[in-house]
Design a protein that fits this description.
The protein is of the alpha/beta class. It has 2 domains: 8-116 and 186-301, Rossmann fold (3-Layer(aba) Sandwich); 124-182, Histone, subunit A (Orthogonal Bundle). The protein is 52% helix and 9% strand. It has helices spanning 20-31, 56-61, 78-92, 106-114, 124-149, 151-156, 162-175, 179-182, 203-220, 222-229, 244-250, 256-279, 292-301; strands at 8-13, 34-37, 64-65, 98-102, 193-199, 285-287. Strands 3-2-4-1-5-6 form a 6-stranded parallel beta sheet, sandwiched between helices.
């Protein structure tokens, strides 16, 4: 790496189906940088079609990391990803001044850019208890438990996200302290510059792309992929849009057509939640996916680590 060129991490994010993959590969080839995935569901090798994993042709164009590198049976979390991603960046910055972090999982992007608080893991007994609570009482059971243990965090958390509720309860019961008191939210220093870019489209255009992508997934064999994963539907990795709706189809709750429409609806809602999350990050500069030259010019001109 040229010592005159400071190591730079380019973050490319935005809602699902906006066009991050193709633009990211263009940028990576122009900058001679490799790509780290920040799509937490593309980590799992068993989930190929339903996570819109980049095609083999795309993966050959630029080296990718953290795609299909673990199993749905592995215990993996954002803390481990932070460590793994920083170690990989240390390696990559020895051979290139640029690397790209691409994906729509905001929590994982924050972990790499700013770090996360180190919180304890629960024991297996507690995890099994909370699993049974969720199975028997649903998300309302988790909400009631967390509201008692940590009313402050309960007001802040996405109350429709069982994973976030579950994790906060685990920490409260493991430590005897509130989850909110253990979250310091102090950024950790990084030894590289960070440039954050967001991609956006008009809502109707994005919705049409989402609908088309779901239809394409079905044509590529998503139903068969989900059928093979039915025995493992209890795993957290599979509590994901595109999989849970088809699990319900196999249970007889919906017709196949209804399940596909629910996938489209839930994906559109997911994209809206993603944009709500990203809009809170004032470091992100927004572009349309066809603004390649503007984006490339900005990357090559920008000096500050944070904007």
């Amino acid at each position: 790496m040229n010592s005159d060129s400071p190591a730079t991490l380019i973050v490319l994010t935005g809602p699902t189906a906006v066009g991050k993959t193709s633009l990211g590969i263009e940028l990576a080839r122009s900058l001679s940088g490799e790509i780290l995935s920040a799509d937490s569901r593309q980590f799992y090798r068993e989930m190929k079609i339903g996570t819109a994993r980049p095609s083999g042709e795309f993966l050959k164009l630029v080296p990718h990391h953290f795609i299909a590198h673990i199993s749905i049976h592995d215990n993996y979390n954002v803390s481990r990803f932070e460590t793994d991603a920083l170690n990989k960046l240390d390696q990559l910055f020895k051979i290139s001044s640029s690397a790209l972090l691409i994906g729509g999982s905001g929590l994982y992007i924050n972990a790499v850019c700013h770090g996360i608080d180190k919180l304890p893991d629960p024991d297996d007994t507690l995890r099994e208890q909370l699993k049974n609570l969720y199975l028997n009482e649903g998300i309302d059971g988790l909400r009631v438990r967390l509201k008692v243990l940590d009313p402050l965090y309960f007001e802040q958390v996405d109350q429709s996200n069982p994973k976030r509720l579950w994790r906060a309860i685990e920490v409260c019961q493991t430590t005897g302290l509130s989850y909110s008191s253990l979250r310091k939210n102090k950024p950790k220093p990084r030894e590289f510059r960070i440039i954050k870019l967001g991609l956006q489209r008009d809502r109707e255009e994005l919705n049409n792309r989402i609908n088309f992508r779901v239809d394409r997934m079905m044509a590529e064999g998503l139903l068969e992929e989900v059928k093979e994963l039915l025995p493992y539907r209890h795993l957290n990795a599979l509590n994901t849009v595109g999989y849970k709706e088809l699990f319900d189809y196999f249970d007889g709750k919906y017709t196949l057509g209804q399940a596909v429409e629910k996938i489209k609806t839930n994906t559109r809602r997911f994209a809206k939640r993603q944009m709500t999350w990203f809009r809170k990050d004032k470091e992100i500069k927004w572009f349309y996916p066809d603004d390649f030259q503007k984006i490339l010019h900005l990357i090559k001109q920008r000096e500050p680590v944070n904007w």
